[in-house]
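User: My collaborator sent over this chain with a note saying "see what the structure looks like." That's all I know about it. Can you take a look?
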Amino acid sequence: MDSASVYFHFWGGLLRPAFDDPSYHNDFARWAHDALHNTALAERLSVIGPTDYDDLEELRWAVVDVMEDELDKSEAPVWTSRENRFLFIRSQIVIFDTGIVVEEPAGLPDAVSSMSRSSVFYHFIDARRRTPRGTDDFSTWLIDLHDEEHRELCNELAGIDPFYGTLSETKGCVEGVLERYLGNGGAR
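Assistant: Without extra context I'll predict from the sequence alone. Here is the result:
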């Protein structure tokens, strides 16, 4: 499967509307639970955190390893109906220029506060895959702009793991960190 499919099945759930708090944080784990009725496999797949891997190939092999291990343990193959098969999907991110520009670090807390969830996804989650340093867009900009002055702030942003929460929770964490370091004109 295309690496974009691996990416989608780990991160896409954050962008889809949901009416519940899912027990499983990736599509592979949800499928193992809902279609195969294999809670143990679902748990093993659910603890695979995409932020623990340097690239999508390593992440793909983590899923394959868990699945192969499960198949090795099985005495008989597990079957599911055609309606419950796993559908590999990939997505493509489309970017719209909002016209919002932050000129100084002190403007970041208010800018993030007014961002949509999809903008938070793009600038805080997807950026870690896109940027050469593997950091979010805010940290990349701060380091490029002022390097050492904001190192501690960038380290704290890097410590936020967006995978096990909602985008709203991630946004709140990012806002809190930015407000602590940059609120009131950047005074700590």
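A starting point for your reply to your collaborator: The chain has two domains: 3-84, 105-186.
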